[in-house]
Amino acid sequence: MTFIKTDIKYWIGADESNHGVVPEIYVAVLSTNPNDVKRSPEIIGKQRKQVDIETILSSEQDFRFMVLENEHFRRIGRLSIKIPTIAQLIEGFSSQIEITKTSIIIDGKDQQFPLLEELTPLVEDMFHTELSRRRFRQEKDGDRHYPLVNIADRMAYQLKLIYERLRSGQKGPFDEKRVYLRL
């Protein structure tokens, strides 16, 4: 199934690194290229180690990321943290997108946790507008089927390698793209 609608101008793909391993990195990648969200009939490989972050992105893409530490998980919980994290990453693109003309694909699907049911109203509140839930899609192995989500996966992996080596409070590369979780 192709995730392209005629009124859509922006696409966001989201994924996280090594779910459950701290620091956990969430990445959202913004694209204006509809080819980035054409579902691949072939499984897209995880080419994490071969490419650095600068090479991963094209000129039609931008990204935001969040680094989550143990303190975040203790305060919110492992499952509940995904909702404000993804919402705030989407909000990080607010000056670049029209949310009503944006579709979002999130990697992973947990049958016991209704992410989209809680994410949609939170994003609506942030952007002060009503949105259709059809604008959001959560798909198991989305990073293996949608190029944009695959890019988010690769970037999350690269950023995880960087932030594992940094000391607490130390600035990392791409900090201008970093979003800090508001609780």
Question: In words, what does this structure look like?
Answer:
Helices cover 29% and strands 18% of the residues. By secondary structure, the protein is of the alpha/beta class. The chain has a 5-stranded mixed β-sheet with strand order 3-2-1-4-5, with helices on both faces. The protein starts with 9 loop residues before the first strand and ends in an 18-residue tail after the last helix. The model has no long low-confidence stretch (mean pLDDT 87).
What is the topology?
Elements: E1 10-16, E2 24-31, H1 53-56, E3 61-68, H2 70-76, H3 82-91, E4 102-107, H4 115-127, E5 136-139, H5 147-165
Parallel strand pairs: 1-4, 4-5
Antiparallel strand pairs: 1-2, 2-3
Name the descriptors:
single chain; 29% helix; 5-stranded mixed beta sheet; globular; 183 residues
SSE arrangement, N to C: EEHEHHEHEH
Radius of gyration computed on alpha carbons: 15 Å
Order of adjacent strands in the largest pleated sheet: 3-2-1-4-5
Q: Report the sheet with the most strands, covering strand number, pairing sense and barrel closure.
A: 5 strands, mixed
Number of helices: 5
Shape: globular
Spans with pLDDT under 50 lasting ≥5 residues? Answer: none
Range of helix content: 25-40%
- The total strand number stands at 5
Mean pLDDT: 87
Structural class: alpha/beta
Q: Strand content of the residues, in percent? A: 15-25%
Q: Quote the distance from N terminus to C terminus.
A: 36 Å
